[in-house]
């Protein structure tokens, strides 16, 4: 099982630019979703930002289902500058892959919870790192798309865009860089304090 | 001495790579270092379980070389140690008077001779540079104070100028500079045009770069590198050159000539040379002579 916890209000606000579409996934029984908190936060966002649509659906981790569910909202989505996704890491990555040209941002951090793991019939995966990096990586998970789970960019091992560990695997950081390039968001790689993973937060901090 | 002092004095900084043995017999390495390297290069890189092949440790070998009057560069990868062990080893280096570091992410475990090992990668090259800088400021990565006068190092890293995605490499290089990297050694270069173009872009970071060279021993080695070694490409005409005179190539003379030529073509664009001789340490003096580079003054 997984748990998703909302990112801070400040973080989410800083991501909300231009016309915004929000997608909530109340998906599967394997993921606990902070429904009430998300609701409150989205109301506040709608008061101060241009939120054109809030969509609540399920199983967005399934690309075909996602397409069907979003069909009737496509005019709003096409017109949007930013898509904010409230879901587990797999859902966010599926949305980002579907809307290659949009800024798709993650509003949740995904943590593991003992028990079942959701069935994700996909080529994207979430390592439940608890500090979701997708917002700086074009919606491609560096924890699962890079063999070394690097968070500060490509190692010296990539050759012809393939990973040093497996020549049949695309280098995750090559993919991330090309995606950011396409989105005109390469600045996301220019930060002052290097990213250092926190392996001490792999368990959810239960709120009071 | 920190090799950053040499760069600051505008010296053309020469380094060579040595690999600790798989075992503890180190006399051969010491003898070669004295015979071929001591008067020709400023410092010696000591690799850290290079290519994920388990060997005697880099830190211990650095200490042995230092006791022999040579200047070692301690290479550290993030493959085998978590942040506690990495920071601890950096402090240990300071304790032993080893002041030059080359900080790397490291090859993946399955590429080596103990492929069953657990890959660590708790930190990466960028966060490791940051961690060393924090130690120099008197704190560990978690923000705990370190007792006494903090250590000071020359913090180096690597970059691949001839990578097929050099823009991605430059982004990483910038992250390393921002984290505190003070000098770079490059992956093996065989294409001077690409290197010079790379240097034009790398100039903006204001950090010295040493041209990396791998002595091309034979055609098979070059083909292998082209197929398997990231960031390395030996162009066809160079392979033809190695093919042309088989006896000469076998004697190692073609490889020596190629390296000397590469140095001549690139030296005005960089701040030094780093030679990875892979056992051919004895050819380094010839390469440098042929490139017109005088012995180092100590
Ligand atoms: S960065 Fe990857 S592993 Fe971490 S929460 Fe996001 S999708 Fe999951
Ligand atoms: S080659 Fe790419 S995917 Fe593979 S470990 Fe290096 S950065 Fe990660």
UniProtKB/TrEMBL annotation, chain A:
InterPro entries: DUF5981. Residues 120-191 form the Methylene-tetrahydrofolate reductase C-terminal-like domain. Pfam families: DUF5981 (PF12225). This is 5,10-methylene tetrahydromethanopterin reductase. It comes from Acetobacterium fimetarium. The lineage of its organism: Bacteria, Bacillati, Bacillota, Clostridia, Eubacteriales.
TrEMBL record, chain B:
Pfam families: MTHFR. It catalyses: (6S)-5-methyl-5,6,7,8-tetrahydrofolate + NAD(+) = (6R)-5,10-methylene-5,6,7,8-tetrahydrofolate + NADH + H(+). Signal peptide: none annotated. Keywords: FAD, Flavoprotein, Oxidoreductase. The keyword Flavoprotein applies. Its cofactor is FAD. Pathway: One-carbon metabolism; tetrahydrofolate interconversion. SUPFAM superfamilies: FAD-linked oxidoreductase. Belongs to the methylenetetrahydrofolate reductase family. This is Methylenetetrahydrofolate reductase.
């Amino acid at each position: 099982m997984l748990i998703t916890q909302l990112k801070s209000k400040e973080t989410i606000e800083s991501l909300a630019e231009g016309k915004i579409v929000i997608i909530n996934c109340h998906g599967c029984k394997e993921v606990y979703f902070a429904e009430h908190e998300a609701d409150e936060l989205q109301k506040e966002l709608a008061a101060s930002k241009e939120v054109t649509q809030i969509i609540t659906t399920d199983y967005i981790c399934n690309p075909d289902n996602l397409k069907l569910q979003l069909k009737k909202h496509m005019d709003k989505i096409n017109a949007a500058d930013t898509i904010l996704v409230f879901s587990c890491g797999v859902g966010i990555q599926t949305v980002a892959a579907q809307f290659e040209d949009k800024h798709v941002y993650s509003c949740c951090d995904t943590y593991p919870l003992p028990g079942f793991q959701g069935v994700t019939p996909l080529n994207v995966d979430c390592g439940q790192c608890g500090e979701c990096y997708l917002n700086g990586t074009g919606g491609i998970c560096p924890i699962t798309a890079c063999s070394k789970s690097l968070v500060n960019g490509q190692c010296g091992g990539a050759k012809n865009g393939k990973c040093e560990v497996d020549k049949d695997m695309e280098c995750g950081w090559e993919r991330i860089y090309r995606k950011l390039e396409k989105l005109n968001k390469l600045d996301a790689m220019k930060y002052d304090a290097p990213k250092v993973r926190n392996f001490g937060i792999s368990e959810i901090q239960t709120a009071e | 001495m920190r090799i950053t002092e040499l760069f600051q004095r505008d010296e053309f900084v020469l380094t060579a790579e040595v690999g600790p043995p798989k075992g503890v017999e180190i006399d051969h390495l010491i003898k070669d270092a004295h015979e071929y390297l001591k008067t020709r290069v400023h410092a010696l890189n000591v690799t850290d379980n290079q290519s994920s092949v388990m060997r005697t440790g880099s830190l211990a070998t650095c200490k042995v070389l230092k006791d022999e009057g040579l200047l070692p560069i301690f290479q550290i990868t993030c493959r085998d140690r978590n942040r506690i062990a990495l920071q601890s080893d950096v402090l240990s280096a300071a304790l032993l008077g080893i002041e030059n570091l080359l900080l790397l992410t490291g090859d993946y475990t399955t590429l080596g001779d103990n492929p069953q090992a657990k890959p660590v990668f708790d930190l990466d090259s960028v966060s490791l540079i940051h961690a060393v800088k924090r130690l120099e400021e008197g704190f560990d990565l978690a923000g705990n104070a370190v007792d006494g006068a903090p250590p000071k190092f020359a913090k180096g890293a690597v970059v691949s100028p001839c990578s097929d995605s050099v823009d991605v490499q430059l982004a990483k290089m910038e992250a390393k500079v921002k984290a505190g990297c003070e000098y770079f050694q490059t992956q093996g270069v065989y294409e001077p045009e690409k290197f010079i173009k790379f240097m034009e872009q790398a100039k903006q970071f204001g950090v010295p770069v040493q041209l990396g060279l791998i002595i091309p021993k034979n055609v098979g080695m070059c083909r292998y590198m082209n197929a398997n070694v990231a960031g390395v490409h030996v162009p066809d005409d160079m392979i033809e050159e190695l093919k042309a005179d088989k006896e000469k190539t076998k004697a190692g003379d073609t490889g020596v000539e190629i390296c000397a030529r590469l140095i001549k073509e690139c030296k005005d664009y960089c701040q030094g040379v780093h030679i990875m001789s892979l056992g051919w340490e004895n050819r380094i003096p010839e390469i440098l002579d042929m490139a017109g580079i005088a012995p180092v003054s100590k």
